[in-house]
């Protein structure tokens, strides 16, 4: 391009050559600078259906103090993204409005005051409050984890949000102990497939509910001791039969209202009921509190996205120490991110439709750029 400008300038009078060359060169530098400060990202025109999503040009973020700029190679879709798209789950204050709660890629740049744990070129995966469905994202340095050896960016992108959520539900909130039994609803989801494996890692007995034979079989393959189709009669009695009438010690519940009676029935005395979603509604018509009192139930509501940076850093640290090594180990329990499909970032609308139709078993991953281990 510079050579073309020079050739055109030579055709002018000598006095004008330098003037025009300077103007054109300045313009080219401005265009290049603008291109370097922009990126491609998922854009939501207005709240609504999947067709309101597209990929467009937006400003590239700059890492603030204690943050890292991540060059994103793969990201993923979560249920929270579909709710945000509908206008039902806004991003936390100060977070990016761009969808995406996780990403995997390379460290591109360090912000001020970083502690020195990461350097440009490091291959990492990130837990995010938003902004992951883009070519670059700024992330708190303490919310990064190294990508396990031999794992692709696409596999790594399937880990942060759902595996950290599952770990939080089981251990930080649910207090799961070795030998206990845990009932995991939506067993075919990203969180469900992660929680099943993490339960086995903890020496617990996972029981799963799901809505298709394929998802039930996948749960068993991942270590569930039993798996029940919630569409085929009440699961509560089946759970009680499986536990010899005792019930389960912990329930991971992303459903809410439509399951509350069965949950109360099959939860053991002094059991922990961890509520983290309301796919089946939030309005209960019935005597739930009597059941809570009679069984001394611990009803625990929790979310992850709006938690403090310190809480997330503690969660990332605990997961990195206790669970992450098992993604590459050859021990009795080897953890595996379950991926349903990988689609290009440009097909974001298709990815959202798939999730809302409950067609996926495991994660829907978005490919942002080609895997390139030799370039930054």
UniProtKB/TrEMBL annotation:
Pfam families, A to Z: ADH_N, ADH_zinc_N
Superkingdom assignment: Eukaryota
InterPro entries cross-referenced by the UniProt entry: ADH-like_C, ADH-like_N, ER, GroES-like_sf, NAD(P)-bd_dom_sf, Quinone_OxRdtase_PIG3
Gene Ontology MF terms: NADPH binding; quinone binding; quinone reductase (NADPH) activity
SMART domains, per the entry: PKS_ER (SM00829)
Keywords carried by this UniProt record: NADP, Oxidoreductase
All copies of domain Enoyl reductase (ER), residue ranges: 48-366
Keyword NADP: yes
Listed NCBIfam families: quinone_pig3 (TIGR02824)
Record's protein name: Quinone oxidoreductase PIG3-like
Source organism of this protein record: Branchiostoma belcheri (Amphioxus)
